[in-house]
Amino acid sequence: MTDVVVRPLSASELHLFDAMPDPLPDLPQISLADGVAGGGYAPERTWIAARGPEVLARAAWLLPPGAVGRPWLERFDLRAAPAVGVALLQAAWAALGGPTEYYATVPPDWRDRPEVVAAASRPMTAARLAGLTPQTERWRFTWHPPAIPGPPVRRGVPLSVRPATSAAEINALVARIAALPTAATLPTAATLPTAATLPTAATLP
């Protein structure tokens, strides 16, 4: 640990954060520069542990624009011994006012994939050794609309897609739809003939 340096990044060093290979490449992540530009991340809340030019651990605290409260640890990656992660967290907490919540993001099937378990366990272990305790597990759902190869086509003619120009245009469109003929009424099922009446049993003498 004597040759490992733990420190926050400056605004001109954001590339160092993304220089560390993603341990969970299946998870889509924005670049730190994009996160800072969006206002959720900040260089003073972004820390690394490095040995020379090699980044061994990284951590970034997130507070989206308009959110209240303290930032939480959103990204924490570690590819060294847990002690390196503990040192990073403790140094950052000392500068940021104490421990904060840590949201460890993993794929939904992470427990069934040994390589993901190994990658996710390293920062989780460091967080526990630093004093955090597991609380709960949440599912995060996102929806991605399907890609549309081109504009919609009706009877071979491309349709234009644009915003409505006025409320009157919307009302006129709704009136046109309401005036369309309704679906043809399905024929009713034919009435089945009643079952033939069975002859009564003959009366025994």
Question: What report would you give on this structure?
Answer:
28% of the residues lie in helices and 15% in strands. The protein is α+β, with helices and mostly antiparallel strands and 205 residues long. The strands form 2 sheets. Strands 1-2-3-4 form a 4-stranded antiparallel β-sheet. A hairpin with a 2-residue loop joins strand 2 (46-51) and strand 3 (54-62). Helix 3 crosses helix 4 (114-130). The model is unreliable at 184-205 (pLDDT under 50).
Helix and strand topology:
Layout: E1 5-8, H1 14-19, H2 32-38, E2 46-51, E3 54-62, E4 72-78, H3 82-96, H4 114-130, E5 153-154, E6 157-158, H5 167-178
Antiparallel strand pairs: 1-2, 2-3, 3-4, 5-6
Gist?
The protein is α+β, with helices and mostly antiparallel strands. It is built from five helices and six strands; from the N terminus they run E-H-H-E-E-E-H-H-E-E-H.
Radius of gyration over C-alpha positions, nearest whole angstrom: 32 Å
State the low-pLDDT regions, or none: 184-205
Q: Count the DSSP helices.
A: 5
Tally of extended strands?
A: 6
What distance separates the N and C termini? 113 Å
Instruction: Assess the beta-strand content as a share of residues.
Output: 5-15%
Major sheet, described briefly?
4 strands, antiparallel
Shape: elongated
Structural class: alpha+beta
Mean pLDDT: 84
Helix content: 25-40%
